[in-house]
């Protein structure tokens, strides 16, 4: 009998310990994670009664709550809504929560652990619950310039601008955009109707092309990573020469690679790495990539952030650079084709890392969290993500990019009195069922000033510029002009 009693006692005691541990994990360790879970409808419903904090740009609210006399107590408003939609997202009663409204929901709704004692004091003092505000890193001039430049030309694509030394995101634009006010009223019928219309729009305005959605072939902007890998590993310098044919039959393949010009890279029998970057030639870059270990460039890409889970705190779709299976794939991958896919944010990170002497800073769109009584609850400090290349390598790549502006295809990004580094890119997207070429994807990335970088930018334009350019336009000037405009907006301050 005593044996059975002891056994029962031990089992009950063990169960008590397990229960205590489980409750502790749920109430304290995992509390914020559970509250933030998008499946936790209780958190969202509770937040309807709270005056959510504002989302701020340069101290001005771009998303804020105003009182109503309905059952929801408040309605969320966005002003100017469409300009900042890829950043704010929307706060909806029936169609979910996106953007910073979702990523920073605990802070905006006042339900995070950091606000625990504030909630208790407010309850004791009879103060209505109120969320903290989120100050973003966005530069309003850069954001407005990016949105306007894309909209005026009717471009589909995205723009991302980063402060190289800190990782602060200065602009995050996706085109076409949408008005989040359409999804934030307190009328569920209107929200559902508006969401259905936006969701069915063939231009997909709800897709955040800057950090997510369908990834893009990077085309020639990916050559910066090939150059960085080669110089860092001692495989080449900017003056290293390569054979300069007009056509290259890929190893163990019938596929023929050509330069975009369909001619040689310059007029000589040999072409240097610098010439290949400045003139954006495919064949010398492919020859260089095939000379290196086939994993060298994908490894360099990962060091710059490819294939990493990243939040800014918006969730970012990882860019991918798979290991090529053979020399032919190595050649095609080296010019940003085949299975290489990227977000504009990732390409901006590449330029920012080069501009910052080889150090990539973790990008962020949040600067501060500010309590309702105007105390700084959280200050986001710069965090180093990686150091993929040395300063010597970064300087060498920078020199080639600067020549790309002064002498090469990125000339349209030149800014008077400012040293600018830049690289263009045109990515092919295969053919349709009838064998016709699909529209190109156009790129520009760069930074300025070279001697003290304040901004790194990436611009992608889908469909060769769209209807106005016959969907097949391959002009590198289109995204370059957008990039210049955004850089000027920051440098003019």
Automatic annotation (TrEMBL):
Domain spans labelled Penicillin-binding protein transpeptidase = 157-470
Give the GO terms filed under biological process for this record. cell wall organization
Q: Which residues cross the membrane?
A: none
Provide the Gene Ontology terms for cellular component. plasma membrane
Q: Which Pfam families match?
A: PBP_dimer_2, Transpeptidase
The record's listing under PANTHER family reads: PENICILLIN-BINDING PROTEIN 4B, PEPTIDOGLYCAN D,D-TRANSPEPTIDASE
Q: What is this protein called?
A: Cell elongation-specific peptidoglycan D,D-transpeptidase
